Amino acid sequence: MLIVALVVAYVGHAFGHTSDGFLPLQFTGYHAPFGTDETETYTEVCASNGFAYLGSLTSGVAIIDISDPTALATTAVFGADLGQAFVDIQVVDKVGYFSSDGEGTYLVDVASPSNPILLSQISSAENGHASVTNALVSQDRIFQVSENSSQISVFDVSNPSAPSFIMRIETNDSVGLYDLSAQDGRLYVAGLGGVTGEGAAYIYDITNLSSGSATLLGQIATGPNTASVAANMDHSQLIVSRRQAGGTLAAWDISDPATALEIETINASDLDVNAWSAGEIIVLDSTAYVAWHQAGVQVIDLDLLQQSSTIFRIGAFGTSTASPLDGFVGNTSVFPLGHNQVLLSDSRWGIYLVDATNVVPSDESILGDVNQDGAVNFLDINPFIGLLLSGGFLEEADLNQDGSVNFLDINPFVAFLSAS
Questions:
Q1: pLDDT of 92-115, one tens digit each?
Q2: How many CB atoms within 10 Å of residue 225?
Q3: Backbone angles phi, psi at 124, to 5 degrees
């Protein structure tokens, strides 16, 4: 009877909707280097070596000491007098790559964060993009994309004082490219238009870039205004956001990039948030951090996704009280230095530091493995039911990661069994 009750509970709920069973991330710090009077718009944030780098549309790039989260302080500002909107911020090996919407990417020595020094610039004069929507630095290469171009500009930046052009990768996107990510020799690119306006994710093998070669492994019709794409650690899943009202967050099976399959798609109503659009996605370990305008950051467990084919939200933190009618305001960027130090940039309010360790599952346990035999199967049913009846606690049985074992864990537990 108890097993039947579990199955009935499972059938009676759309467990793909994730509005229940998540925890708030823990607030640790806040700073607004250029004020909060709405005369400034903050853009992207990143961090390195104890400092955060926060872009803005009119005031330059703020360099912020985050060594003490309770006393964040601006140590310097780069580019305040350049008249540029800095929309994308990267820092790698003490070099800042600050991309603008008019004069390409500025390469800046930030070895001394209190004294940033311009090293070089990659703009249209060097065969780069003048308006850079986003950029990525990986393995001594910088990849620039623009929402006004179907091409990816690639440069060798092993000598940041003298970057050299390698190639342009032509995607043939009908609108332009918005964002990109890379790992293990694969490049993932978000296309706003795709072939005929349907939007796309492009997957490239970039292991032979030095010879001027990039091989298209797959092109996925992911929906109009595809804005951000990021893969999990083994390249079996692709998480995709779309930049539009209500937004969508989708998961795709890309085990074979040439024949990708959609796993699930959710939107703001599925998360029970009153928000405009999903945005930047960053994957760390088996966790996806999604910046969502007006809804802060949404944290997705990719192990649960793999096991149940369901997008599970395990945590969230809000940064904005703005109305969804305000459009693309609120949390615009997320950067996890580690799960214990996640940086968020809010377009109106500046930078937040939060801690996600209370929501990220421990590596030592396997969710659903209630009898702790290393597998999730029917042998876990009786001990799971026993915990429900007794009110006991076991981390492996706390499927929704809310700190207790109760009826809210039934649906994801049955989903785990079904996927096993």
A1: 999 999 999 999 999 999 999 999
A2: 22
A3: -65, -25
In degrees, rounded to 5, the angle at the alpha carbon of residue 268 between the alpha carbons of residues 56 and 182 is 55
pLDDT band at 412 (very low <50, low <70, confident <90, very high): confident
- Contact predicate 291/344, CB 8 Å: yes
Specify the fold of 1-22+367-420: Type 1 dockerin domain (1.10.1330)
User: What is the spatial distance between Cα 135 and Cα 144, in angstroms, rounded to a whole number?
Assistant: 4
Tell me the two tokens of residue 224: 């109009």
The CA distance from 238 to 190, in Å, is 11
Quote the longest CA-to-CA distance of the chain: 73
pLDDT tens sequence across 255-280: 999 999 999 999 988 888 888 889 99
What stretches of 157-277 adopt beta strand conformation (E)? 164-170, 177-183, 186-191, 200-205, 215-220, 226-231, 237-242, 248-253, 261-267
311 burial (CB, 10 Å; 0-12 / 13-18 / 19+) is buried
105 near 157, Cβ under 8 Å? no
* CATH 2.130.10.10 boundaries in the chain: 27-355
Tell me: the pLDDT tens digits for 179-218? 999 999 999 999 999 999 999 999 999 999 888 889 999 9
The string of DSSP codes covering 38-88 is: SSS-EEEEEEETTEEEEEESSS-EEEEE-SSGGG-EEEEEESTTTT--EEE
For residue 190 the two structure tokens come to 């978000």
Which DSSP letter does residue 192 get?
S
Cα separation of 232 and 44, whole Å? 22
Considering only the top CATH level, what class is 27-355? mainly beta
